[in-house]
Amino acid sequence: MQEKLEQIQNLSFELEVRDITTREDWFSAYEYEVPLLYLSNRQDAKGTEGEIIEAPLPRPSPRASVQQLEQMLRKYLAN
Question: Which Pfam families does the record associate with it (predicted)?
Answer without folding.
Answer: Glrx-like (PF05768)
